[in-house]
Structures are given as C-alpha cells and as structure tokens.
Write a structure and sequence with these properties.
By secondary structure, this protein is of the alpha+beta class. The chain has helices spanning 6-54, 56-68, 72-75, 77-89, 121-125, 138-150, 189-240, 255-365, 375-424, 429-473, 480-575, and strands spanning 95-101, 106-108, 111-119, 133-135, 152-154, 158-160, 163-173, 179-188. Among the domains are: 42-192, 2-Layer Sandwich (Beta-Lactamase), CATH 3.30.450.20; 312-533, Helix Hairpins (Orthogonal Bundle), CATH 1.10.287. Helix content is 78%, strand content 8%.
Length: 580
C-alpha cells in the first residue's frame, strides 16, 4: 500500500472540509436566494393586487355581469377593463398567469375548486374560461387558506400539465370590507430555478476559485512548515537502521524548533544509553564467564567435599559400632569386678569367722590343764572347729580361683578396650589411659589371689596337721600337753595366716572398688564417645545432603551463567547494529 504523506493528508482533510463548508454555504445561500425570490414574488403580487383593489367597482360590476352571462367578459366594459389589466400583468418575465376567482367554493369530485371570474388571454387558450371551476392543488389550497385568514398566501412549488409553478393569492375586498374576489398570480418556477441556478453556479465558481487559491497557499505554507518534520522523519529512518550519528539542524524557536531540539536530545541520550549498554554487556559477559568458571570450580570442590563427608560418615558409623562393642565389653568387665567385690566380701566374712573359731580354740587350749575330764570335749570341739576351718579354707580356695579367673578376663577386656580406644583416635585417648589402669589393677588382683591361694594351701596343711594332732591327742592323755602346745602353735600360725588373709582381702576389695570406679568412668566416656560418634554421623549425613544441594545449586548457577553469557552475546549483537 502506497504511503500517503502528511501534506496530502492535511490537504485532503482541508479539501473535504472546504467541500462540506462550501456545500453548506451554497445550500444556505440557495435557500436564502430562494426565500428572497419568494419575497419578491409576494411583493410583486402585492403591487399587482393593489392595482386590482383600485378597480374594486369594476370587479363588482364584472362579477354581477358574468354571473348573469358567462360570455359577458367579452362585451362588458368592467370585464374588458379587468381583462386588459390581467393581460398587462403577464407581460413580465416571471408572471405567467393573472386571474380573479369568485369567492364561492365549489366541490369538484370531492376536491375544492374556485370558479374563474376573469383571467388573461393565454389562460383562456388553455380551456380555462370565466365561471369554469378551477381545481386547487394541495399547494394552492394552502395558499388559499392563508389568503382567507391573512389576506395573502403563497403556495409551494407544484407541477401540472403546464409546468412548475408558484402561485400567490390575495383577497380583494369591497367597500364594506367583504371579500368580493380572490386575485392570483402564477409565476413560472422554471425561470425562477434557472435564475437561482445561474446564481448558484456563479457562487460555486467563485467559491471554487477562492478555495483553490486558498488550498494552494495553504499547501505551500504546510509544505514549508513540514520541512523540519520531513527532515526528522528521514533522520528517524536512519536511526531505525542503527545510525545514531545524526542531528537536526534548525534555528527556529517555535514548536518545530522545540521538536528538533528534543529529537537531538533524544538521539544523544540514546547514544549514551547504547554506549552504556555496550559497556555493561561486555562487563556482564566477563562476569558471566567468571561466574561460570567459579561455579564449575565450586561444583568440583563441592563434589570432593561430598565424597569426603561420605567417607567421614562411614568412619563415624564404624566408630559408633566400635564404641558400642567397647561399651558392652566395659559392662561385662564391670559385672566381673562386681562379682570380685562380692567374692572378696564373702571371703572376708569367712576369714573373720575363721579367726573367731581359731580364737575360741586357742582360748580352749589355754584353759585349765587340770580339767582333764573336759579335754575330750575340748578336743572334740577343736576337731570340729578345725574341720570347719578346713571346709572354709576350701571355699576360700574356690573364691580365690574365681578371683583369678575374673582378673584374667578383666585383663583381656582391658586389652580389647585399649584396642577400641586406639581406633577412636583423639576421643579415645582418655579411655586408653583408664583401660591401662584397669589392666594394672587386674594384674594386682591376680597376684593377690595367687598369694591368697598360697596362704590357703598353708592353712590347709596346718589344719591337716591340727586334725592329725587332734587324732593323736584323742589316743592318749600323755600326749595331751604336747598336742595342746602344738595345737596352740598351730592356732597361732592360723591366726597369723588369717590376719594376712584379711589384709590381702582388704587389698583385693580396695582394688575391686577402684576397678569398679574406673570401669564406670570408662563406661561414661564410651557412652559420651558413642553420642559424639552418632552426632558426628548425623552431622556428616546432613553435610553430605547439603553438599549435594550445593552441587545442584552450583550446576544451576553454571547453567544460568551460560544462559547469561548467551543473552549478553545477543545483546552485544543487537547493540552492534547501532553506529555511534
């Protein structure tokens, strides 16, 4: 589609407005000229009717004569005078017919008609003679009604077989003021229309000439005014093609000058904007490349961290499993130590009971030697006490053997605890020290139990000897003194052995208590180490999950950086189309 310029659009709009305005003015002028023509017709009719009114006597005479004889208009003097007046009125260019109507109305085929009183000769030639009814057209009837009411009426344009007409009617009164006739003139509307058309075309010609002159002047003025706008339009095309090295040269200070100045300012700002965008795009490209490299490096580091954290988590799980085994071992060791303490307490009670029995035996031997009759009973009681002592010695031997076994197991458990502490690293260093102390205490307990076993063997030998002595004493009173002395000595050795056993049992009990306290500390340390291992495992798993999320985020950042670099390249390509 061909582009229409601003000048053509303005001229087209102006031509349209001129045509509309000219048409409106011509229409108004035509209507005004037509109204003036109608006023002129009414004035002409008024002048003619004034002349007829001067002949009111002749009108009455002719009316009476013609009513008696329709042909009287030919011979009656009044009728002939009126006839001459009618013929005189039609000599002009506008009046075609002049006539007088009788005031009496006639109904002709349901339509209003007025009989002709007198008319001009041409009217008679058309078959309209005096006393013949003249049928009124609707336009003539309106004029007739106006004449009846106001004395004069003008019809609108109407057409019959004779042509197009405008008729004006006036009432002719007599001397008393009564209407004696109606006077009418028919004006040829074709002549009126031709005259109006000549005036109209003359106005059209003058208006067209003036409009063309005005349009030419206006077109030159608009073209001159639009030169800066056209220049701006051409420069705008260059700007649209990317050439920003343009400016509008103007010295005008009107609105067009302001437009040119604003255009230059806009181009300058666009140049600054494009330059800034170019610099920013280069910086964005460099930053996106750096961001992508950093994201890749961070992703690699994060992946390595994730692998390391997985290894730490696995180690923490193994450490937690080891601490669980150590806890179970320490619980078993604490149980063994508790049994050692209980056995030591039982042995101590038995030793105290044995010491009481030995004391009572010694007291019995230290009794009155004279009471020989009581020797047999004393020997029997002593024999029973020695037998009970032998039985208790066997029980103590069993307890001592149990203590030795428990001490050996404790030593093995302490070695296992030391191995687990070495696996725990820094967290198990204190636990290793405690396990070493427990091993030393177990070795001491084993040594003490061995000494107790040796003492028990000695007691058993002594009790066996006492039993033999009791048996020998029972064979004869003669050997009673020797037997009593040997028995006293045996009881003294037994008392000494019992005191030594009590001391050893006290040492074993103290060692067991220390081992129990150390075992509780080791158990608490292992429990704390287990909690630390569990928390370390949980933290390691959380860190591993966070590392995976960070790795995914770094991959997204790397992808975004790649997309940003692509968009920056596109932006640089778009900016490269502009020439600064």
């Amino acid at each position: 589609m061909k582009h229409i310029g601003v000048v053509a659009k303005v001229l087209g709009l102006l031509i349209l407005l001129s045509v509309v305005l000219s048409g409106t003015l011509l229409t108004l002028s035509y209507q005004q000229q037509r109204a003036l023509y109608f006023d002129k017709l009414e004035i002409t009719e008024q002048m003619a009717s004034a002349q007829v009114k001067l002949l009111s006597d002749q009108v009455e005479g002719a009316e009476k004569s013609i009513k008696r004889d329709s042909q009287a208009y030919i011979s009656n003097p009044d009728a002939r005078k009126l006839q001459a007046q009618m013929d005189h009125l039609v000599t002009g260019q506008l009046v075609s017919n002049a006539y007088l109507f009788f005031p009496e109305e006639i109904d002709k085929d349901g339509k209003l008609a007025l009989p002709i009183l007198i008319g001009n000769q041409e009217l008679y030639g058309n078959g309209i003679t005096p006393t013949s009814p003249y049928e009124l057209s609707p336009e003539m009837r309106e004029a007739y009604e106006e004449a009846k009411k106001g004395g004069q009426g003008t019809s609108d344009v109407y057409t019959d077989v004779g042509g197009s007409w405008v008729s004006v009617l006036s009432a002719i009164p007599d001397k008393e003021g009564n209407v004696t006739a109606y006077f009418g003139l028919d004006f040829d509307y074709r002549a009126i229309r031709m005259d109006l058309n000549r005036t109209l075309w003359k106005s059209v010609g003058i208006g067209t000439g003036l409009s063309l002159i005005f349009l030419a002047v206006f077109a030159l003025l608009v073209r001159q005014l639009l030169k800066p706008i056209k220049a701006i339009a051409e420069l705008s095309k260059r700007v649209a093609e990317g050439d920003l090295n343009v400016s509008v040269q103007t010295k005008s200070r009107d609105e067009l000058g302001v437009l040119a100045f604003s255009f230059n300012a806009m181009i300058a700002r666009i140049r600054e904007l494009i330059g800034g965008m170019q610099t920013s795009s280069e910086r964005v490209t460099a930053a996106s490349i750096s961001l992508k490299e950093s994201a890749q490096q961070t992703a690699q580091a994060t992946e390595q961290i994730a692998q390391s954290i997985q290894e730490v988590a696995s180690g923490a799980e193994l450490q937690q499993s080891g601490t669980y085994e150590s806890t179970r071992a320490m619980e078993e060791m604490a149980s063994g130590i508790q049994r050692i303490a209980e056995s030591a307490a039982s042995a101590s009670d038995a030793s105290a009971q044995m010491a009481g029995e030995a004391g009572r035996g010694r007291d019995a031997l230290a009794g009155n030697q004279a009471q020989m009759e009581a020797v047999q009973g004393a020997v029997r009681r002593t024999s029973d006490a020695v037998e009970r002592l032998h039985t208790l010695s066997e029980q103590i031997g069993k307890i001592t053997s149990l203590i030795s076994d428990i001490a050996g197991q404790t030593n093995i458990l302490s070695l296992n605890a030391a191995i687990e502490a070495s696996r725990a690293g820094e967290h198990g260093r204190g636990f290793a020290v405690v396990s070493t102390e427990i091993r030393h205490l177990a070795e001491q307990s084993l040594s003490s139990s061995q000494q107790i076993a040796e003492l028990i063997e000695t007691i058993q030998r002594e009790t066996a000897a006492a039993v033999e002595a009791m048996q020998a004493g029972s064979q004869g009173v003669d050997g009673m003194a020797v037997l009593v002395r040997e028995t006293v000595e045996s009881f003294e050795h037994i008392a000494m052995s019992i005191d030594s056993i009590n001391a050893q049992f006290f040492e074993v009990s103290s060692s067991a208590q220390q081992m129990s306290a150390s075992a509780e500390e080791v158990s608490a340390t292992i429990a704390e180490l287990s909690g630390i291992s569990r928390r370390s495992s949980e933290h390691a798993q959380n860190v591993a999950a966070a590392s995976e999320e960070q790795l995914a985020a770094m991959e997204e950042i790397s992808s975004s950086a790649t997309a940003l670099a692509g968009m920056s390249d596109q932006l640089r390509g778009m900016i490269g189309k502009f020439r600064l």
